[in-house]
Amino acid sequence: TVRADAKSQITRTLRMRTADARALTRDTYLYVPIRVPEGAWHVVKYEPSAKQEIVHHMLLYGCRDAAASGLDKVVGGMYSSGSHVATCGDGTSQALLYGWGKNAPPMHMPEDVGFRVGEGAFRVLVLEVHYLEKQSAGAVGKSGLDVILASGRPKMSASVLAWASYFSLQPGKKDELVAATCAYEQSRELKAFGFRVHTHDRGTRVWLDRLVGGDPGKPVRVLERDPQLPQEFELLSEKGTSLTVSAGDALRVTCSFDTTNETAVVNAGFGASHEMCNMYVMVYSDEPQYLSCLGSNDGSMGKFALEVGDAKQPIEDMDAVRARVVPSRVKWPALGGIGGIQATSDGEYVWMTNRGPNVWEAGSSLSEAKTIQEDAIVRMNLFTGAIDRAFGANAHVMPHGIRIAPDGSIWVTDTALHQVFQYSPDSGERVRAFGQAGVKRGGGEGFCAPADVLVLEDGSFIVADGYGLCPNRIARFGADGAYAGDFDLGSAGKVSVAHQLAYSQVRREIALADRENSRVILFDYAGKFKQAVDLSEHGFAYGLAWMGSSLEGLGGYYALCWTRDAPNPKTSLVRIFWTGDNAPVTHVWDLNAMGVIFKSPHVLAAQSSKNGGTASWGAGLTLHIGSTTSTIGKNYQRLWLGLNEPRALEPPSRSASAARGVAPPRLRAPAVLIAHPIAAILCAGLAVIALAHARRHRAPPAPSRPWPRDVESVAFRDFADDDDSDDDDSDAPPRDSAPIPPHRRGLKLAKD
What we know:
Elements: E1 2-4, E2 10-19, E3 28-35, E4 40-49, E5 57-63, E6 73-75, E7 95-101, E8 107-108, E9 113-118, E10 124-131, E11 142-151, E12 156-165, E13 168-169, E14 176-183, E15 190-198, E16 203-211, E17 219-225, E18 234-235, H1 236-239, E19 244-245, E20 250-257, E21 266-267, E22 278-285, E23 290-295, E24 302-303, E25 305-308, E26 322-325, E27 338-343, E28 349-354, E29 377-381, E30 387-391, E31 399-404, E32 410-414, E33 419-423, E34 430-434, E35 450-455, E36 461-465, E37 473-477, E38 483-486, E39 498-504, E40 509-514, E41 519-524, E42 529-534, E43 540-547, E44 556-562, E45 571-577, E46 585-590, E47 601-608, E48 620-627, E49 636-642, E50 682-683, E51 686-687, H2 692-696, E52 713-717, E53 746-750
Parallel strand pairs: 9-12, 12-23, 14-24
Antiparallel strand pairs: 1-2, 2-11, 3-6, 3-10, 4-8, 4-9, 4-11, 5-7, 5-10, 12-22, 13-21, 14-20, 15-18, 15-19, 15-22, 16-17, 16-20, 23-25, 26-49, 27-28, 28-29, 29-30, 31-32, 32-33, 33-34, 35-36, 36-37, 37-38, 39-40, 40-41, 41-42, 43-44, 44-45, 45-46, 47-48, 48-49, 50-51, 52-53
């Protein structure tokens, strides 16, 4: 069906149906492949045509070129024949575009968002229809899905994050929990707009948490749904919630099961006697990122595995990486000293504290500083150079640290006022102030020259406190502002100017730039000292930032060091990272030697690649550096740390990739080890859960390929499964009658 809509956009409906009468055996899977019309298209709507009493679920997959030859019908599950049934013709796994169950209603994509199909994307769609119960041979109905396409590429590309876990449920339990946790180490910011959950009949709840400090005992609930409700992709806008996924985020999906009516262990798997724990979150970005999280229900944190999207291209030779000033077609605004700086995760803006004419010279008294009449807090558009948000005039004396909280609010410290402030990012209204203006305090009574603040996912916050003659500490406060104690600095030794904080969910730690001691101190989330990294040969440790993306091989902490008191001061950038053991490794870039000169470098913010107009620059990352010189207008600098020369920034068009000159994403062939049924799969360091005998017979990974798509759940079983022994269908592939030895047993990646 072809139509033209009100926007003069051609729409086309792909009608995909299966005949119910063909499902003559329990647990029948029928498949409908369809080729997308020539040209570029995107999905704008899904209209299911199925009933719960007939169809258990439907899943829609995208294939790069073609569906598997002869793909038509499978009985007893995708793996019941003893080998994986490939959906795509190249033998790879496939990306999930949509799922339906329990009479879920139609789904409309948000405006300007769609799943890219056709040219440069998925040229073939495959619908899987699962009939749990056998149907009558005389049934005349058909079940399936209408996929409504619009011509061209969407402004923002949709994709799916999928969670699953291998597990066994003990009988007689009212609330048996299963969880899968993964860290997001890609670069692009992802915005969620819909989610779907799936379990079998024993499931009671499925929810998604952010982990505060990466701590599994500190969850913040983001999404939740009863899996016995219609299994639709529920829109976040209808729930009044939001979810933005950025590099370094740790996300956990948990399912609750009621096994009080069970008398034996229930394993993950396909059949009605099995269970599943799945969540699918639809997200959008400028380029699609299909990712999977496969958990082991053991409390460990894995990493999202790539299916389609930005493949890792780690830089092997750090000496080939250079720091360069990013050319700008606009003039940066005239700001005073920049005490704090933070970039938004989409790379479009930086927030800064502006000291105006106030200059804090060494040895000078803050009590002599005057209130700044200019706006002390500003947001700058990195593409236009325009200040589009500005507030805090006549309210600050020496603004220092700045932080964008998870809820979007802006937090600022003022070393002269001895206070910490929370502001609305839109109105600039002061929401809360902590501490007494101009009064030095400690403990839970206030602050003494606080330099930086870090706001965590649950709204609690951590303050680096102590400048000049003030005692140094790191103080923790609850979301309500209640004092929760100080970090253990005794084991770390005396701190001299706790200057800038950084935070890693993946490593579950808080880091501090101990400025005058020229070191970075690492604490666990509870505030216990872990280790210190000595940077004394590079100068005083002023700035500190964490880079959570591992896409370029540039993850880790970045410290901004300055030999302030040397006759010819120089600025260095030091990367602190780990290669497998507990000993940190450092790599240093001498910025002066690279022609990047700073007079008074002060703070640092890092931004992952693929954001902020840098997608075509190759491997690298963006660094935003704030200085505190007395020269108005010379205090912000943007650097590119990478292999290639940076280009001038262009304002984002929010249009199709081709219009921006960005190549469409290459649909990479995932490493599916299907030729041998014992294969277990590894990718990007994410170990698939395996039984002991499976670990001993694991095949080596394909290092340059991402994870396969079929990862809604995983369970080990013999291919001759007793639960499916009563299935009989002339179209079903024959099974081996001989017992399958342990080393021939396979990894089962289950779907809905």
